[in-house]
Amino acid sequence: MTASELDDGRRYRGAAPGQRQQERRARLIEAATDAFGIDGYRTTTVTTICAAAGVGKRYFYESFTDSEDLLLEVYRETAARMIEAIHTGLRGAEAVDAQVRVGLTAYFQLILDDPRIPRIAFFEILGVSPAVDRAYHDVLDALVDICLALITPHVDLRAHPAVSVRTVLFGLVGAIVIIAQKWVLDDYRQPMADVVDSACLVVNAVLAQIGPEEKY
């Protein structure tokens, strides 16, 4: 028995098997978030993650088929945190321009507060496999859905059909992601307030073109 497996026995004594598995899974995800977000996915092994999580290697495969499967789960949880931050910000304002600003502020604040998140979401996720690429585009779709929900009441769909608006919003989301990537690659040198201002300028310029005559 390995030291990790002995530690598992001490930690989980008295817990139901299903609970033990869920707790091991959660510890593996947290350890992988640290490893992928600090050292990088391609330089991290299953052995390293298991050691950091205090989980015997044989238990890794009760939850994940391989390291790519774990990366997908880490990415989904990371993306969920980003989306939740935006939703939380949007609940704090009513006017469209205010919603745009608070939503973007929450997004960039999360990126600033936890550098693991942008490394995983913007860089480590790219070019791994077609399955991981699909997960990346699923998150882009979710971000576009947020934008659609925000602006649909303020868009003249007679002049701009919904399918065209969605295409425009894909471009808009891509622009915001590029702004965030550049900020991270520059080691956050630009003040966050300036980054938010730039992102708001891009969003409001698009809204001014596809929305009715109103001030953004």
From TrEMBL:
Domain HTH tetR-type intervals: 22-82
Full protein name: TetR family transcriptional regulator
Keyword entries, A-Z: DNA-binding
Top-rank taxon, per record: Bacteria
GO molecular function (one): transcription cis-regulatory region binding
Database matches in InterPro entries: Homeodomain-like_sf (IPR009057), HTH-type_TetR-like_transc_reg (IPR050109), HTH_TetR (IPR001647), Tet_transcr_reg_TetR-rel_C_sf (IPR036271)
Pfam families assigned: TetR_N
Annotated DNA-binding residue span(s): 45-64
